Records
---
Amino acid sequence: MRGRMGLRAQVDHNGNGRFVVRLNGEADLTSTHTITGAIQPLRDEPGLGRVEVDVSEVNFLDSAGVRALLAARRSIVSTGAAFVVTQPTAAVADVLRILNLENLLGLDTTGPT
């Protein structure tokens, strides 16, 4: 049984329109608002060019978490900006590969650039 860890998000602006959203914890039905709350406001950032979602500290991802990432991607890409998921743990990478989402989410195993 998983412990209730929740999900935390930290957003860093790394210049040149690039933002890194670092997620930490469990991305599930109870935490999708954290993903949305961190990423949605970036749509209004002047010069937004790229959003990188660092999932190196996400230890659980369920279908609700996947759905939140896909909605975030759709929202960001609609502005003309790029959206990638970086540094997935093995568990997160497995889920995204099983769902054949690694290309759509720009899965990058090398980390933030």
Note: The domain at 23-98 is CATH 3.30.750.24 (Transcription Regulator spoIIAA).
---
Amino acid sequence: MSPADSLLSWSKGALGQLVDAAGRQALAVAREGVNRKVRVGVTGLARSGKTVLTTALVHNLLLARARPELMPFLEVAEQRRVIDVRQIPPRRRRPFPFDAAIDL
């Protein structure tokens, strides 16, 4: 085997390992991004603005994909990386009255 063939054989092996490692990293990042969930709990004294805060946050998050300028402080919105935002009602508690709060 010539030195050139040895180098070519070595580079294919090293390159293959690099590509495999990069592929595994990309899959791990994609899985984490898809499965990432954020739960928010808001507590405070009576009449301290919990409903206003929650309503504004949810409303702006729901609009973040179409209008990222609404949340310039949120990097994922500013960089247009918001994939999906959904309202999911709680299973055991009564749901937050989002639609009624938006209509106020």
Note: Residues 1-36 form one domain.
